[in-house]
Design brief:
The structure is a homodimer. The first copy, chain A, is mostly helical. Chain A contains 15 helices and 2 strands. The first copy, chain A, has a single domain, classed as Farnesyl Diphosphate Synthase (Orthogonal Bundle). Helix content of chain A is about 75%, strand content about 0%. Chain A has a two-stranded antiparallel ribbon with strand order 1-2.
Chain lengths: ~300, ~300
C-alpha cells in the first residue's frame, strides 16, 4: 500500500494547511470557541473524507485546488459530529485519539458551541465563491448535497436511529440502516463532492456517491471489528465500549469472520462502481481496500 | 400597530406552512429526531426573523414566495440556537414559551441532534434551487452570508463570549459585543437575506444588514428589560434568571430608564438605515418600533 501511504501523507498535509487557513485564529471575545474548534480539528484525524473527495476529483483529471476547501469543509462536519457524539448525553467518551475529548478539555458548553460553529463554517466554506459567479451552480449544489447527507435524512438521522436502537434489540437490517446513515452518508457526500468539483456528469457523480457509500459501510464494519479485537493503545479509545453499551455491532450479530467477509464484499462492490471516466483509479482502489484492512 | 399586527399574523401563518412543508415527516428509523425537530419549531415562536426577511423583500417590491423558504431556514437556525442554549450545560432552562424545553421533553441527546439537524436543514433549504441555475449566485451568497452571521464570527461567537463573560465582570462594551453577535447577527442576516432575494443592490443589502443589526440590539435590550420587569406568566419562562446567573444585562449596567433610551435610539438608527429603494416602509418602521415597545 505504498501508493496509498504516500498519497495519504501528501494530501493529509494539504488538508491540514487548508483547515488552518479556514479556521478562525484564536483571538477576540470568542477566542475560547476558536481554541476549542482548533483543538477538535487538529486532533490527529486521518482526514479520510477530504482525502476521498480529493482522490475522486484527481481520478477524474481535476486539480487538488479545485476541491481542497470543500474537502476541508467535510472534515469540519466530521469533526463536529465527533465532538457532539462524545458528549456525556451521547456516547460519554473521555478520550478520542488518545487525548481528552473536547468537552473534557474545554467544558460541555464550549464543546456544543464548537460543534455548532464547525458545522456552520463548513457551509460557509462550501458556498464561498473565490472563482466568481460562474462556479455558483456547483457551489449551491455542493451545499445542498452535503447538507442532505449530513442532516436528518443522513448522518444525524443515523445517530438518532442509533440512540433508539440502544433501547431495542437491533436487527441486521436496522444496523445496516444506521451504519449507512451514520457513516455511509458523509462518505458518499465526500466522493460525490469530489466528482462535482471535477465537473463530472450527474451519472458519474451518482456512481461516486454509491462508491463512497459502500466504502463507508465497509469502513464502519471494520470499525466494529476493531472495537471488539483491538487494544486501547492501538485504538486510542476504550475498546469494547459499544458492545458493553448494548449497541448492536456487525461482529455481535454475524460473528467476526462473516463480518470480515461482508466488509470485503462491500469493498469489491465499491470498486465496481468507479466509472470509466476515472482514468487514475489506483488510489481509489487502495482506499476501498484500506477501509477494510484496518479491521484486520 | 394594526398594520403590523395584521402583517405579522398573515406572514407568520405562511412561514408556519412553509416550515411544515420543509421539515421531515415523523416517520422512519429517525422518527424521534423528526418529532423533536417539529416540537422545537412549532413551539409558538413569533417568527420575527422570517417575517423581517419577508418584510424587507416586500418593501423592495419582491414577492413573498421569492424569500419564503429562505426565511423559514432562518427560523430553523433560530430554533436550533434556542434548543442548544436551553441545554443543561448551557442555560439549563426547563421551560420555553410555557412548555418543557426540547431536552426536557425528548432527552438531551435527541435535543442536541435535533439542533444539529435543524441547522443542517437550514443550509439545504438556502442552497436548493427550485428556480434553476440562474438563481445559483443568489443561493450561494445566501448560504455564505447566513453562515457568516450564524457562526463563530456571529451568533455562536456571541454565545461563547457570553459564557466567558459569566466568569468575568462584563463591561458595557463587552455586553454590546455579545448582544450584537448573539442576537444582532442573525437579525442582520435576516434583513440582508430579504434584500438579496428581492434583487437589491449590494449597497442596499448592506444598508438592510445594518437595519437588522440595530433592530436586533434594540430587541435584545428590550429582552433584558423584560427579564427584570415581567412576570413568569407574561414571559413564558423564569424571569430574573440572567441577573441571578451573574450575567451582565443592560438594566443592570445602565438602569432601566437609560436602557429604554438606548433601545429607542437604536430603533431610530435602524429606521434611518432603510434605503430609498424600499418603497413600502410602513411595516419596517413598525417592526423597529415593535422591537423596543415589547420592553415596556
Amino acid at each position: 500500500m505504498t501508493v496509498l501511504a504516500d498519497y495519504l501523507a501528501a494530501r493529509q498535509g494539504e488538508v491540514d494547511r487548508a483547515l488552518d487557513r479556514l479556521l478562525p485564529p484564536v483571538a477576540g471575545p470568542a477566542a475560547r470557541l476558536h481554541e476549542t474548534m482548533r483543538y477538535a480539528v487538529f486532533g490527529g484525524g486521518k482526514r479520510l473524507r477530504p482525502v476521498l473527495a480529493i482522490a475522486v476529483c484527481e481520478s477524474l483529471g481535476g486539480r487538488v485546488e479545485d476541491v481542497l476547501a470543500p474537502a476541508a469543509a467535510l472534515e469540519m462536519i466530521h469533526t463536529y459530529s465527533l465532538v457532539h457524539d462524545d458528549l456525556p448525553a451521547m456516547d460519554d467518551d473521555d478520550l478520542r485519539r488518545g487525548r481528552p475529548t473536547a468537552h473534557k478539555a474545554f467544558g460541555e458548553a464550549e464543546a456544543i458551541l464548537a460543534g455548532d460553529a464547525l458545522l456552520t463554517l463548513a457551509f460557509e466554506v462550501l458556498a464561498s465563491l473565490p472563482e466568481g459567479d460562474a462556479a455558483a451552480p456547483r457551489r449551491a449544489r455542493a451545499v445542498a448535497l452535503v447538507a442532505r447527507e449530513a442532516g436528518a435524512a443522513g448522518m444525524v438521522g443515523g445517530q438518532s436511529a442509533d440512540l433508539t436502537a440502544e433501547r431495542t434489540a437491533a436487527s441486521l437490517t436496522s444496523l445496516e440502516w444506521i451504519h449507512a446513515h451514520k457513516t455511509g452518508a458523509l462518505l458518499a457526500a465526500s466522493a460525490e463532492l469530489g466528482a462535482l468539483h471535477a465537473g463530472a456528469s450527474p451519472e458519474d457523480c451518482r456512481a461516486f456517491a454509491r462508491f463512497g457509500h459502500a466504502v463507508g459501510l465497509a469502513f464502519q464494519i471494520a470499525d466494529d471489528i476493531l472495537d471488539r479485537t483491538a487494544t486501547a493503545a492501538a485504538l486510542g479509545k476504550t475498546p469494547g465500549k459499544d458492545e458493553r453499551a448494548g449497541k448492536a455491532t456487525y461482529p455481535a450479530l454475524l460473528g467476526v469472520d462473516a463480518s470480515r467477509q461482508e466488509a470485503d464484499r462491500l469493498a469489491a462492490a465499491a470498486r465496481a462502481e468507479i466509472p470509466a471516466a476515472a482514468r487514475e483509479r489506483a488510489v481509489l482502489d487502495e482506499l476501498a481496500r484500506y477501509a477494510v484492512e484496518r479491521g484486520r
